[in-house]
Design goal:
By secondary structure, the protein is of the alpha/beta class. The chain has 4 helices and 9 strands, in the order E-E-E-H-E-E-E-H-E-H-E-H-E. It has a single domain, classed as HUPs (Rossmann fold, 3-Layer(aba) Sandwich). The strands form 3 sheets. Strands 7-4-3-8-9 form a 5-stranded parallel β-sheet, sandwiched between helices. It is globular and about 35 Å long.
């Protein structure tokens, strides 16, 4: 129990090329999930919080992009090998997408954070639930819209359902009223 040796953990991935082995000295690796339904200021706030949290605390972070299937059953989004999955409504010039991609890439390079972006298609809650089970997620970092009711009075419905389905701790993040400059970096 009191061992301070180096432990080796395998990070699973659907893509064998993205699987990784992490060596941790003297402790467990905590896995965090940032589920993203759509690129929005709340999603960006959740990713920013996760990057800052990761710099201070370590762990493995997953950005899970969930797209609903359209009536024909095809995916509503497409995977972009250069960065996070691209929802169908996100254009390459979308400022939120560029900001998100840049911050994730910089966190990987500069801060050495273990971050993986994953695309899933289907029902948002069910996909998050299954991902949590498959990857042994300990905490979910959930972005909430600014107009969400006071979380101390009553939990947000998505947060409540995710907690019931996954039994994970849920960290809720709201965008600041004045968002920082898009050139913000996790290493500053």
């Amino acid at each position: 129990m009191g061992s301070t040796g180096t432990a080796q953990y395998r990070i699973a991935s659907d893509d064998p090329a993205k699987a990784a082995t992490v060596f941790v000295s003297g402790g467990m690796v905590t896995a965090y999930l940032i589920p993203i339904k759509e690129l929005s200021p709340p999603a960006l706030a959740a990713v920013r919080f996760a990057l800052e949290f990761g710099k201070r605390n370590g762990g493995v972070f997953y950005c899970l992009f969930v797209t609903e299937r359209d009536s024909a059953g095809s995916a509503a989004g497409a995977l972009d090998a250069a960065g996070p999955p691209r929802p169908a409504d996100a254009k390459p010039s979308d400022p939120l997408r560029r900001t998100l991609e840049g911050q994730i890439a910089q966190a990987r390079a500069d801060a050495g954070l273990q971050i993986e972006c994953v695309q899933r298609q289907g029902d948002y809650l069910q996909e998050v639930r299954q991902f949590v089970r498959d990857h042994h997620i300990a905490e979910i970092i959930l972005g909430l819209p600014e107009d969400a009711r006071d979380s101390r009075a009553k939990p947000h419905p998505d947060a409540l359902l995710l907690h019931q389905l996954t039994h994970c701790r849920i960290l809720t993040v709201k965008p600041k009223t004045k968002e920082p400059d898009p050139s913000w970096s996790p290493s500053s």
